[in-house]
Amino acid sequence: MDTLARLQRLADKPELLVAGLMTGTSVDGLDVALCRIRPTLDAVPELVLGRTLELPAELRAALLAAKDAGVPALARADLALGRFQAEAVRALLAESGQGPVDLVGSHGQTAYHEHRVTTLQIGEPACLAQALDCPVVADFRRADVAAGGSGAPLVPIFDRLFLGQPDKGVLALNIGGIANFTALPAGSGPASGCEPVAMDCGPGNMIVDGLVRRMTGGKQDYDANGAFAANRRIDRKLLDELAAIPALQTPPPRSLGREEFGDAFVDALVARVAPESEAEWCDLIATATALTAEALARTVRAHVERSTQVDRVLVSGGGVHNATLMRQIELRLPGIEVASTASVGLDPGFKEAIAFAAFAVLALFAPPLQTGGFTGADRPVRLGKLALP
Known about the structure:
Layout: H1 3-12, E1 16-22, E2 30-37, E3 46-53, H2 57-65, H3 71-96, E4 103-106, E5 109-114, E6 118-122, H4 125-132, E7 136-138, H5 142-146, H6 156-162, E8 170-175, E9 178-184, E10 197-203, H7 206-215, H8 236-243, H9 258-261, H10 263-273, H11 278-303, E11 312-316, H12 323-332, E12 337-340, H13 351-365, H14 372-375, E13 385-387
Parallel strand pairs: 1-4, 4-7, 8-11, 11-12
Antiparallel strand pairs: 1-2, 2-3, 5-6, 7-13, 8-9, 9-10
């Protein structure tokens, strides 16, 4: 079957089985979401099965080192991740009893990102296309950068489609390695003509994860349920200084990554504070946890409150499971309901993977998207590149 006939056959199906793949800036695992999605995207995608797969230690190390390891190592990591992704989708299909998959949307791993200058996502989609015998859409950011945008955040496209509410202003907040949000005024949606305010607002779990790894000698990768930070002393002076760094003061469009809050930032923070006892380490983790909430609150006050009344915060990503962080957010956004996206039927752990499954459908069957309101692109763009079996 030729390419055009194959794509037309997909367009004619009432429902597609689509796999969405996401590895975030924390590089802590691969999220795979197997979804049923209508080509018209007139209903929230149905999550059939979602799994987070731990990255093999060698692959994770290669991905973390990719930016500085040189072109040969970067090229090898690109193919290694693509092959791992393909095996992950195969395993999920076998577990679910579903298949074959019609389409894959893969964000890939961000190897490098420089705001409004360049971006690079790796995880070769040809590996997926050949292994699964289906079209794959990947590399979603670069078309936006080519159009003058920052390439991120892109999930606001999904939020605008599915998370607006008729009678409440919603802040759709995702807390992965980096935290980002979409502010949706009451009544907003794809047909409203409303351009939401959307941006990266600051670090999510990235700094806390880095501190936990250093405190535990690599035995733990994250602060489970916020236990290390719970009921600990927050260094208010340090918190204010961190919240005032230039990267957190830029207006939208704002995109952030490991370049701002990765290992170099964490190493400098540890050198500055020099924690020795477990109590001192936990106090520093508590301060870093508070920074995520403080950066969010300051960004909302500076860039959202004048245009959008926020009644409800819907949280997704790994941060939703950190009870200490969720409490810090509630304290800094008084009078606003803070809840998981599970409250509206969307699994918080797989929201971004589901979004990139939906973006693959948009890339094939929708007109170019207007992203300028949150990335700064100067024209509508069709996000993603197509790899065929």
